[in-house]
Structure formats: structure tokens, C-alpha cells
Amino acid sequence: MSKVNTKYAAAESSVSGEAKSTFSFGELMRSPAMGALIGMLVVFVIFAMFGYHRNFLSFAGFANWMNFASTVGIIAIPVAFLMISGELDISTGAVMPASAMMLGISVNHYDFPMWLGMVSTLAMAAGVGLINGLLVTRTQVPSFIVTLATLFAVGGLTLALSDLLINNTNVSLNSPDWAKAVFGTRYFGFRTSVFWWLGLIVIFWFFLHKSPWGNWVFAMGGDPESAHNAGIPVSKMKIGLFILCAVCTSLAGMLQVIQFNSAQSATFFNMIFFTIIACVVGGVLLNGGFGSVVGVVFGTMTLGIVQQGINYTEIDRNYSLLIIGVMLLIAVLMNGTFQRLATNWSTGKKED
After folding, report:
1. CA-CA to 159 of 20 to 30 Å: which in 193, 265, 337, 346?
2. Mean pLDDT computed over every residue of the chain
3. Half-sphere exposure (Cβ direction) of 293: Cα atoms closer than 13 Å
4. Is 162:171 a contact under the CB 8 Å cutoff?
5. What is the pLDDT of residues 300-326, one digit of tens each?
6. What is the DSSP string of 41-96?
């Protein structure tokens, strides 16, 4: 086997992306999801202790932080795919409100059928993702800079066009019953976004951990040059991931506006940080090549517990940001340890 193919095989069979191995407890202990699971359990126990008398452990309390986590989670997993492949997308903070505003304006002010408004909104988001992907792959400008530019460009256009078209930066939306039932109501206390998130988790898990494309994502983040030499369509894959990220962000925005019957054009800067934090806490490395869908789910749930669970305690809500900051730092330190364990285990397994 050539040197290039050897590098690619190593990337393909890493613990974080291995799809063909059988389950073992040792493998789980070395996976990127393990640190995220431990962190989530620790945070859950702490908030359960402090929030027990305020019904944190109630079904309503569980639904509350899951509802928050679902919106972040729908965006976080595609963001994680980009991070694993060595890229980053921070334009999500502008695409989300732009999608909500576009749906509201097209349906409420221009009488588009709801289905047409949603298709148009998803197409707009896909266009933003396509622009991001083309700029990153064709110009070699770092994705952070490219998506930072589109963040402000899309945010500015959303404000300007909203003011031009409806003379307002806020919009209301009256959704038909079928749209409410599918995208914007509650079942047993859970928003429909939770069920969309759960469905996407299954699809994304299969994509990353069971399909050949998932191995390509890990290979691109581990060694892009070797991945390209091994025949992986690196540029097309990255463009596709940017489009996927933008479309999922658009879905989250549409779920929000249908749920709450209104939207605003202000850029959601918090969403940028929430999704990245969920990924890092979930075991995704900032330099790419390591991560898992399950880990990101645990990281997102941890973020939801902190953000919403603090309302069930006597802890000052201002401390939630401090807790998230400490949690993020610990996660970064732990991720490096789990990566070394995974690498050593994988190397030892090959030698055997």
C-alpha cells in the first residue's frame, strides 16, 4: 500500500469514524461521545440537586430544556460535520433569522402558499451555503473569514430588505393548520422541533458512522491532501456540507417562526456560539478529524440543561455563562485526552 493510501486507511478506520467495527466497552470509553456523556451526567446531577424543589426533575422540566436543545441541535450536527472536515460555519446566526423573516414575508405579505414559502426559504438558504462552499474551495480563504463575511452580508440584507418590503424589521405569521401540526405545535409538552431533531439524529448518525461519505468527512479533516489523492471529491463534499448546514439552519428558523407566529430580523449571535459550544462539548476537535453524532447530541443536551435548568434553581442566571465557559474549557482539555486514547487504541489494534 502506498504512503497516501496508508494515511487514508488510518483516517478511515479511526475510532471516531469507524463504521465496521463491532461494539466494545473499551471502544466506547475511548470514543469522543464518552467525555460528552460524562459531562452531561455530571451537569444533570448538579442541577438535579439544586433544582429538585423547583421541579427540575419533572416531565415539564425535562421538556423545557429539550425544547431549547432541539433548536440548537438541528444546527449543531451539520456544524459538527464541517468542523470534523476541517471547516467552520458561523453564518448560521444570520441564516436563521433570514429564513424566518423570508417565510413570514412571503406567506403573510405576498400570499405565497405555505409550501411554496418554505421551499423558497430552503432554496435561499441552500444558495447561501453554496456561496460559502464555493468561496472556501475556490479561493482557499479560511472558512471562518468567508462565513464571517456572509454572516454580516446576510444579516445586513435581511434588515435592509425587511425594511424595504414591509417597512418593519419584525413580521408575524399565520400558519395553516397542517403547518402548525407538523412544524409548530407541542405534543406532550415537546415542540415539534424535538421530533425533527430526533429524526435528523438518526439520519445524520447513519451518514457519518455507517456510510462511506462519513469516512470521507473524517479523512478530509484528518489529512485533506491524502484524502484528495485517495480520490475523495473534497471540494464537492465540502460544498455539500456547507449547503446542508445552511438548509438545517433554515429549517430551525422556520420551526421557530411557525411555533411563535412571529420573527425578527436581528442576527442571532448567541446561536453561533451555542452550536460551536455544543460541538466542542460533544467531543468535536476544532482542528478536525475527530467527533461523533452521539457526542454532539450529548453536548447539545448539556447546553440545554445549563441554559434552561438554571431557572429551576436559586443560582443567579448570570452565572449560566460562567458555567458554560468553564464547561467549554474542560471539554477542550478532555477532547485531546480522548483523541490520544482513541489513536493509541487504534494503532495498537492494527499492530495486533
Report:
1. 193
2. 85
3. 21
4. yes
5. 999 999 888 888 888 777 777 788 888
6. HHHHHHHHHHHGGGTTTSHHHHHHHHHHHHHHHHHHHHHHHHHHTT----THHHHH
